[in-house]
Specification:
3 domains; 15 strands; Arc Repressor Mutant, subunit A; DNA-binding; 299 residues; LysR family transcriptional regulator; 5-stranded mixed beta sheet
Length: 299
Amino acid sequence: MDRLMALRLFLRALDRGAIAAAGRSLGLSATAASRTLRELEESLGLRLLDRTTRHVAPTEAGRRLAARVTPLLENLDAAMAEAREMHEDATGTLRIVARRSYALRHVVPRLAAFRAAHPRVEVDLALTEQTGLVPGSGVDLVIRLGLPAGKSFVGHRLASGRRILCASPDYLARHGAPASPDDLLRHACLAYRQEEEAPVWIFTTPPGRREIEVTGPFRSNSGEALRRAALDGLGLVLLPEWMVGEDVAAGRLVPLLEGLAAWPERYEAEIYAVHARTERLPAKTLAFVAHLLARHSAE
């Protein structure tokens, strides 16, 4: 017996004054409705309804049960409606974990427009330089490098994986520009910090793949820190187009070895917004992903 259904049927019978009418309102035949109420009474060991051929009335036990159960079911219905609303309408708290450098340049500046369009959504944003993060444990959306393995997640591409080797005009005036990847061995290179490993930059050249173990005066696990150091003339940097594209366009940084695809080891991937694969994704998550994609496609 579905006890929740039986309780709803019991209250509906009191409201309608008849078991058959109560059953019809819940999609049950008169026979099924009568059987369900008998099973409820048997499970409780007491009689809840006084029955006549045309009418039912609550017993003393039935009145007391109805008084206790009615607010409980009303609260349950309200909670279920709120849960449905959160899926159908953009509302609630959206928890995001995002790649720090990308979020500061391309997510945070878009929050005001998102909130204007969806004022019932609150955004909880955590920034990280970690890789390999996935949604879960209360996190609705992850903005990360690359797609996670497996079929449990859905990824939406936000930015390309193209990297630009560049340096400030001041640095190039003092040290000249490299003519080939091998020339980087004689330059100050600003690189992502690797635990107990020398940083490696990888180039695709006509002869094939070329790996250069670079050195320089500054390393960091923050792309924004590396960008700032390059702008200040400390050396060459190899960073995503989404991070330094505006600097290159404005002449603050000068692109180098433009005919060669290049990337720092372990940092070749594109930027994705990733959420769990589910039949009914909350509207708040869908709305935020759509907002990011709309701005990305317009750029």
